[in-house]
Amino acid sequence: MPDTPKIPFDIFESPQEILILLPLGGVTPESLDVQISDYQLLVTGDRARPDVRPELVAAKTDCYRGPIELRIDLPPKTMFHEIHCRLTRENILEIIVPKTTVPTKIKIEKDSPARAAQI
User: Fold this and answer.
1) How does pLDDT run across 1-51, given as a tens digit for each residue?
2) Higher pLDDT, 6 or 85
3) How does DSSP assign 34-84, residue by residue?
4) I want to staple 9 with a disulfide (CB 3.0 to 4.6 A). Which of 22, 31, 40, 70 is the partner?
5) Which sequence spans correspond to the domains of the chain?
6) Distance (Å, rounded) from C-alpha 96 to C-alpha 21?
7) Contact between residue 119 and residue 38 where contact means Cβ atoms under 8 Å apart
């Protein structure tokens, strides 16, 4: 998607999950889409142009209006099938990315003498 604005976002992390907060002021909820592509989250949407009375002429237009696209790299320990999102009333997209836990110790099973004889 050419020339879309860089959208700032925050990332918080714990050993169990990653929380991504993405403020999407002006983006219509109906246009919002989140997908996984090449181990990245792909967030797309449309920042709508406001409806103003026809007699009003723009004196200044700094705000970007149009399609948005954002790619966020996901870590290798991501539980992709459990990623979920929530759009708040303030139009902040909360993306929760659960992580797999890696055990620090592996249990060693001990064979009984009877089991050892079977092998």
Assistant:
1) 557 778 899 999 998 999 999 999 889 889 999 999 889 999 999 988 888
2) 85
3) EEEETTEEEEEEEEPPPP--TT---S---S--EEEEEEEE--TTB-GGG-E
4) 22
5) 10-118
6) 9
7) no
